[in-house]
Design goal:
about 15% strand; 4-stranded parallel beta sheet; Rossmann fold; 9 strands; alpha/beta; 2 domains; about 300 residues; 5-stranded parallel beta sheet
Length: about 300
């Protein structure tokens, strides 16, 4: 019996996925260098058999992408649910994202055919794959955008998350979202910001977002914001060491508002800043703003294609 099984510890398991060309192979190599047992492009049907025995002492990383012979949205999501239900495993989903123009450039530079469009242009395959992976992207525990990252920079990002210095083993994600599009999957804690003063009803602020100073000042001017934020910050700072002692490797907190553009964005930014100042390693995501940016990039790309 392994030491992990005897002690009741859970085996760390990282699933790496994302669009083709986003850097999955590079990431797998980095994990191997960090001491992980690595398996790339494993058929999903073999996952249950792979973890049917006792937990291993060694952490494992699995690379999953659309080339898997039984890959599908439902199959991967079902596999993730099964792994999360396994008491001997501590699974995390790492999603490597990349903007369409950069993916197109990478395929053009390597002259590779896209696996989802062998007889079409790479752009056709990239768009098809992005649509296929969107529900999986929403389940990510950690998201790294590799659009502007060199292989060396990607290595540093992975090392920061999965081999942190000083013994800290808890990575944090703070995100904003819109209640109209549902709760963020995988969130450990969700906080509703809809009681705060809404900048949407201010004409000059409507098209801005919570990162804008004018919007930030409008929300911070609500007399309820300061006590709300201070108590939320103190609660999270009290809980994080307990999660760390429990052996958790990741904690995700979501701030929600009506449109996911103003109040939740501002609250997420403020909390991420406070946690970083307290010495925690934090990743911040704005689900609706990211979605709008992706749609804008796709529209611009389609317009260029028509030209």
């Amino acid at each position: 019996m392994s030491r992990a099984a005897r002690s009741g510890a859970r085996q760390r398991l990282v699933l790496v996925t994302g669009p083709s060309g986003a850097g999955r192979s590079t990431a797998i190599n980095v994990f191997e260098d960090l001491g992980f047992e690595a398996i790339d492009n494993l058929p999903l049907g073999l996952l249950e058999r792979l973890f049917s025995g006792p937990a291993s002492d060694r952490p494992m990383v699995l690379g999953l992408d659309v080339r898997n012979r039984d890959f599908s949205q439902l199959a991967l999501l079902a596999a993730l649910d099964g792994l999360q239900a396994n008491p001997s495993l501590a699974p995390e989903l790492l999603y490597l994202d990349c903007a369409l123009p950069e993916l197109q450039r990478r395929f053009s530079a390597t002259r590779r055919r896209h696996p989802l469009a062998p007889g079409e242009t790479a752009v056709d395959g990239i768009r098809r794959e992005q649509d296929l992976l969107e529900p999986i992207r929403e389940r990510a525990d950690i998201l790294i955008d590799t659009s502007d990252l060199s292989p060396h920079m990607l290595r540093r990002q992975i090392e920061r998350w999965f081999a942190p210095q000083g013994g800290q083993r808890l990575g944090l994600t703070v995100q904003s979202f819109s209640y109209k599009r549902g709760l963020p999957l995988g969130a450990d804690m969700v906080i509703d910001c809809r009681f705060l003063r809404n900048p949407y009803w201010q004409a000059d602020l409507r098209r801005l977002d919570g990162c804008d100073p004018a919007v930030a000042a409008h929300i911070a001017g609500d007399s309820r914001f300061a006590p709300f934020f201070e108590r939320t910050r103190d609660l999270v700072l009290m809980l994080l060491p307990a999660y760390l002692e429990e052996g958790r490797s990741h904690f995700s907190l979501g701030f929600g508002c009506t449109g996911g553009q103003h109040r939740s964005v501002f609250a997420a930014e403020r909390l991420a800043e406070a946690l970083a100042q307290a010495g925690w390693q934090v990743s911040i995501r704005h689900r609706e703003l990211d979605r709008q940016a992706r749609l804008g990039r796709q529209s611009a790309s389609e317009a260029r294609d028509k030209d």
